[in-house]
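Methods, example record. To illustrate the input and output format used throughout this study, we show the complete record for MADS-box domain-containing protein. The sequence lines were provided to the predictor; the line carrying structure tokens was produced by it.
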Amino acid sequence: MSTKRGRQKVEMVKMPNESNLQVTFSKRRSGLFKKASELCTLCGVEISIIVFSPGKKVFSFGHPSVETVIERFIARNPPQSSPTLQLIQAHRNASVRELNVQLTQVLNQLDFEKKKGEELSQNRNDNKKEYWWEGPIEELDFTQLKQLKMSLEELKKNVAKQADKVLVQNSHAQQFFASSTSGAGIAPFESKNGLFNPDMMHNNNNNNGYNHAYGRGFY
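The corresponding predicted structure is encoded as:
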């Protein structure tokens, strides 16, 4: 029975492994953007995040947009508004909120599918250990290969016995039908049209030592 280890605390130092660093950055960036989207949806705040990856790629998230938040931060004054601008801004904010909700739903679905995939992978590994003979033969150890060989040899013997049994049964059936049909013949008084057949009578009597002439009696 395997024991699961709890989540271990990650030491807050830069990772020396380049591959692990890229994977961790991708996961943490998605989580950060998700939290920012939830903050915008729940509190109606304006937010902007700009991230440069270790590979020098730029990723950003902003509500209502990165440029708007940056310009407002630089000016340190709220933008001048008019009824038309307010209407446009309200429509934009509504669209952005809807997109944020959709983004949150997609991220939640992605997390759900990820967990489901991990569970399926775990079940596959458990089944692989339990039904080891269904796996690739290259992955079996010596003991498993030996046991598989013995099982296949036993299966071969059983198949041969069953094949011999079926062959004997078919042979007996053919002999029975052959003996049943060997004594069958045409009666002397039968013909194809149902009338008396004198030739058949003549041939049968010759075999018994008699000689008949049709319509003349014995001679």
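Annotations derived from this record:
Strands lie at 47-52, 58-63, 212-213, 217-218.
The first strand starts at residue 47 and ends at 52.
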